[in-house]
Design a protein that fits this description.
786 residues; Nucleotidyltransferase, domain 5; seven-stranded mixed β-sheet; globular; single chain
Length: 786
């Protein structure tokens, strides 16, 4: 029993949630520092997954589904105080021994990789307690490998400190592709400066002895306490101007600006005032603040000088000295900005404390020739990982990464580094998106859009009960469904509580992130696909109406067909159970609310964004070779909206790739459901069967399990198909994929974005009304000039 064990050894930080998969651990690595230690271990996690079973001989249902358990790899990272290391080792030993001893056997099959200053100090204790061989890994190598791993796999890992923003974190994605060298500054007791060219190539180009140990040592002498976090807390309460001599103190505040262009508040001499007064006159907070700024400014200046010497434009700071403290990040950033005059950018990492541990883990896999364990992509589990509390450190913390399909960049993005998937950053000011909204011909948000954050948090929190009820109803034969539904509700509510208190708790706060947390909480609670029954019912109803819809379209004059297809696609997109108003309409009218009723809800032309005429003209020119269509909802959306649109493209000689989610999200169609549906359509629509068999109609999974679309992470299958088939048209439909994300994404080919605004607040913000239409056609030439 975890709680009883923790009570007996007085480690209240250890919990069943943090170490829940320890009995199935496959391998470990440790990073032991002077004050903090980190463990990373790989385990096998069992998930409930929905499998689609298609039987063309059955008349009962279009297809059936089965929920089965499936194992998947997980990486767990745990951070705790080094003073608890021996107790933690006891805890690990007991859990591994309890799994029929197999866990201990696996652990002892290969050396335990350990890095950090404590690797030598605790080697004998680790070997004695766990019965394994400890192999020390180089600290700098582990740091670089860990940094590369985090930047590659965790979106929003990198951020800069922006003093004028609230909270002061601005997330970036500039180094995730590993394309540009950068300076990695590791601030431990001393400071090491590393020029990082890629994950395996780096050079230590310099350093300084004045680092975290300097602040810790001198601070302890000045304040009478050796607790590092307490020293930082005391420093945050001080005013360095009472201790430091400023330019204004020497020349006077009015004439200071005439002295070499320096402002009066620039520090002329750190601790300069101490030479002219009794030190007893200075408070501990003022002295520690001055000391922190002295050390940080020195590191910042040296980092800039090394970066300039090696033509590096980006500096990433890491090490125990930072630990998420705002004052530390502010002073380091100020130093870099001041000396570089803004030409060099300072960055920090959300999970910088785990770099050494994951680096040691990777090195162990390489040496054991098992690096295949890390192939594919990894995603942060937003339900089980500890939040990022910028400004403080809260004892034990955890991070969990779940293995997923191998993902890559969407190859038709105009510029991968310029691509920003999300339309709103709810974490802070929206000023950075002003120009993008104007280029999309929509009303830009105000520069400070804090009401947007509160609206979307309230909006999605209000939907919890509805999703909880649907999740429970999706498993009528499970005696634990009600209990697990309550677990989902509590987990999701906890996210909203944290997001309100700290908007950057899980990285950049966006609508996409909120929806992803919802899906993670459902999956963790054992509900892999709460909408599966509803989706199947809607697919069957829509399938019954497909022949009639195709016949109607065939009866139209050819000149009217493109507009009718677009209206049908937009009408189908109304069927979105993730939108509260639509859910009410569908619940109220049931099967009486069909495609025609949905089209009646649409805004009359001219639409909010109306490029229908431009699209029609381009379509009739017959310029396309292959189109990829990112599909959205099941039922009417897919079968009566998207599919007729795709059939028309096929009739015009254009190959079509229909791309659907790999995993369930709301009532979005999955690739497995899509395959079953298209096979059934092919049984009575020969054009579809012929296109499928000849390879002119392709079906691909995107690798996503989200209602939104982040084109930095698509399946290799989709990326390869775009290259091989020479895709020259991208079609994105739906509010999640074309409005909440990708509204101002630019592509190297023509792009058609289609969505109905099914949220009144959002429509008003964009200058429209409920059910306003976005039909945005962006030719490649327009995309090229932005």
């Amino acid at each position: 029993n975890t709680s009883e064990y923790c009570s007996s050894i007085a480690i209240s930080e250890l919990s069943a949630d943090v170490l829940r998969d320890l009995p199935t651990a496959q391998r470990f690595a440790l990073d032991i520092g002077g004050s903090l230690s980190k463990i990373v271990y790989q385990s096998k996690r069992k998930w409930r997954k929905t499998f689609v079973v298609y039987d063309e001989n059955t008349d009962s249902h279009l297809y059936s589904t089965q929920e089965l358990e499936k194992e998947a790899d997980c990486l767990h990272f745990i951070k705790f105080e080094t003073r608890l290391l021996e107790n933690c080792l006891d805890f690990i030993y007991d859990n591994l021994k309890g799994s029929d001893g197999r866990g201990l056997e696996i652990l002892r099959n290969s050396p335990l990789r350990v890095t950090g200053g404590g690797a030598h100090k605790y080697r004998l204790a680790i070997e004695a307690k766990l019965g394994c061989v400890v192999e020390k890994e180089d600290e700098m190598t582990c740091l670089v490998r860990g940094c590369a791993f985090m930047l590659k796999h965790i979106p929003g890992e990198l951020f800069s400190y922006e003093h004028d923003s609230s909270p002061p974190c601005c997330f970036a994605d500039e180094l995730s592709d590993g394309g540009e060298p950068f300076l990695l500054v590791n601030i431990g007791s001393g400071v090491s400066m590393l020029k990082v060219e890629n994950e395996t190539t780096f050079t230590r180009i310099g350093g300084t002895s004045l680092g975290g140990g300097t602040f810790w040592g001198l601070g302890s002498l000045l304040a009478g306490t050796s607790d590092f976090d307490e020293l930082l807390e005391i420093a945050s309460q001080g005013d360095h101007r009472n201790v430091d001599m400023l330019v204004g103190d020497i020349y006077g505040s009015e004439s200071a600006s005439s002295v070499h262009g320096l402002s009066a508040d620039i520090i002329a001499s750190s601790f300069g005032k101490a030479s002219k007064a009794d030190c007893k006159e200075f408070s501990k907070p003022d002295l520690l603040r001055s000391l922190l700024i002295t050390v940080s400014n020195n590191i910042g200046q040296l980092a800039f000088l090394y970066a300039s010497r090696h033509q590096l434009r980006r500096i990433v700071f890491a090490g125990f000295f930072i630990r998420g403290h705002l004052l530390t990040m502010r002073t380091l950033t100020y130093g870099v900005n001041f000396w570089s005059q803004g030409s060099v950018k300072a960055y920090f990492l959300r999970h910088e404390g785990y770099l050494g541990a994951i680096g040691a883990f990777v090195r162990g896999l390489e040496k054991d020739r098992r690096i295949g364990v890390l192939t594919g992509s990894w995603a942060e589990n937003l339900c089980t990982s500890s939040s990022f509390d910028v400004g403080s450190w809260q004892g034990m913390a955890a991070l969990e990464l779940d293995k997923r399909k191998e993902l890559t960049d969407f190859p038709l993005l105009r510029d991968r580094l310029d691509y920003v998937p999300d339309t709103w950053d709810l974490s802070q000011s929206c000023q950075q998106f002003q120009a993008a909204f104007q280029s999309a011909r929509l009303n830009p948000p105000p520069s400070q859009d804090l009401s947007a954050r509160e609206y979307w948090l309230n909006c999605f929190e209000a939907s919890i009960d509805r999703h909880q009820q649907r999740a429970v109803l999706s498993q009528p034969d499970s005696p634990s469904a009600t209990e697990r539904g309550e677990a989902f509700r509590l987990a999701y509510q906890n996210f909203f509580k944290e997001a309100r208190a700290n908007p950057v708790a899980f990285g950049q706060l966006t609508v996409r992130r909120i929806l992803d947390v919802q899906e993670h909480c459902l999956r963790e609670s054992g509900f892999p696909d709460p909408f599966w029954v509803l989706k199947r019912e809607e697919n069957e109803v829509a399938l019954d109406g497909l022949q009639s819809r195709l016949s109607h379209l065939a009866s139209l004059p050819s000149a009217d067909l493109p507009a009718a297809l677009i209206r049908g696609l937009l009408g189908g997109n109304v069927f979105d159970w993730g939108a509260g108003r639509v859910a009410e309409l569908l619940a109220e009218h049931g099967k009486q609310f069909g495609l025609n009723e949905a089209m009646e809800q649409l805004q009359p032309r001219p639409w909010l964004v109306d490029d229908l005429d431009a699209w029609t003209s381009r379509l009739k020119a017959g310029v396309y070779t292959c189109a990829i269509v990112f599909v959205d909802n099941s039922g009417c959306d897919l079968l009566l909206g998207v599919l007729p649109f795709a059939i028309d493209l096929l009739d015009r000689g254009v190959k079509v790739i229909l791309a659907a989610n790999h995993g369930p999200a709301l009532n979005d169609v999955t690739i497995f459901e899509l395959r079953a549906l298209i096979r059934r359509v092919g049984s009575f629509v020969p054009r579809v069967a012929d296109a499928l068999s000849s390879g002119r109609l392709l079906l691909a999974g995107t690798g996503s399990s989200s209602p939104c679309l982040d084109l930095r992470y698509v399946s290799v299958e989709v990326a390869d198909a775009c290259r091989q088939e020479q895709v020259d048209l991208v079609v994105i439909e739906g509010m999640g994929r074309a409005v909440h994300t990708n509204l101002y994404a630019k592509f190297s080919c023509d792009c058609l974005k289609l969505a109905v605004l099914k949220n009144a607040w959002l429509a008003d913000r964009l200058g429209g009304n409920l059910f306003s239409v976005i039909c945005s056609f962006e030719p490649a030439a327009a995309a090229a000039v932005g």
